[in-house]
Amino acid sequence: MRHGVVLFASDRGIRPADAARAAEDAGFETFYVPEHTHIPVRREAPHPGTGGAALPDDRYSRTLDPWVALATAAQATSRIRLATAVALPVESDPITLAKTIATLDHLSGGRVTLGAGFGWNTDELADHRVDAKRRRGVLREYVEAMRALWTQEVAEYQGDHVSFGPSWAYPKPVQPHVPLIIGAGGGPKTFAWIARTADGWMTTPTETGLHARADELREAWAAAGRGGRPQIHVLATTKPSPELLESWESAGVTDAIWGLPDRTPDEVVASLHRQAARLGLTPVG
């Protein structure tokens, strides 16, 4: 099981490059950041954690652009993977986003993982002219179109939401396949989507019944005729313990994601190293 850290990167606190460098030095394998382009003040969509309009953290409205943040992290590191937890691809132009991700993968030496969500904040989606009822279909076309641009010498795509004729698009990602992990509540609809299109699942902070959900995901994976096993990335909400880690291992968890506190840079780095020690990670260098 790999261990990573997620920084709710905002315009205050530790900079992503500094956090990523400290995480790499401490022995973590992946560095994640989230995405929100903006937060509408008046919203009908409830936050999945609070159940209402209240947000659990003001950094939702202060979030840095994830790809710029990860680009700075790429420059400051050499080994750690660069991921989103989660990005919202349907809030961007797919051709431009494909270029951005391919460029980051190219410049980082093939270290990008795309963690993507369907978008709980349907009011935010609406400002990007995305119909919430069709967001899963929109994301599927975005992924298919971006993969065409990443892998085909002359790429083209024709869909209901994305359409472009034969085109050249470089750079190509260093990785033959950029991993796609879907962050969403577990259930048959989500797992069928993942089994058809993605490489794995990322839990939400409120997910329960992990063993049962993981089994359901693997059943959907097999039913779709996929080989191997799906990745499972778990957003941790408690401190690590041998019992917790053993339970995750038995559920087939491939990646554990540990949150960084909203503190001063020195406090964040100290917290990061304490967590690495609890996990028994080997410092680098």
Detailed description of the structure:
The chain is globular, with a radius of gyration of 18 Å. With 285 residues, it is of the alpha/beta class. It has an eight-stranded parallel β-barrel, surrounded by five helices. It has helices spanning 16-26, 66-76, 94-108, 122-127, 135-151, 188-197, 210-223, 242-251, 265-279; strands spanning 2-6, 30-33, 81-84, 112-116, 155-158, 163-167, 180-183, 200-202, 231-235, 255-259.
Residue runs with pLDDT of under 50 for 5 or more positions: none
Radius of gyration: 18 Å
User: How does the major sheet shape up?
Assistant: 8 strands, parallel, barrel
Determine the number of helices (DSSP H or I, runs of at least 4 residues). 9
CA distance, first residue to last residue? 22 Å
* Structural class by sheet pairing and helices: alpha/beta
Approximate shape: globular
Mean pLDDT: 97
Strand content: 15-25%
Number-wise, the strands total 10
Helix coverage percent = 25-40%
The arrangement of helices and strands along the chain is: EHEHEHEHHEEEHEHEHEH
The spatial strand order of the largest sheet comes to 1-2-3-4-7-8-9-10
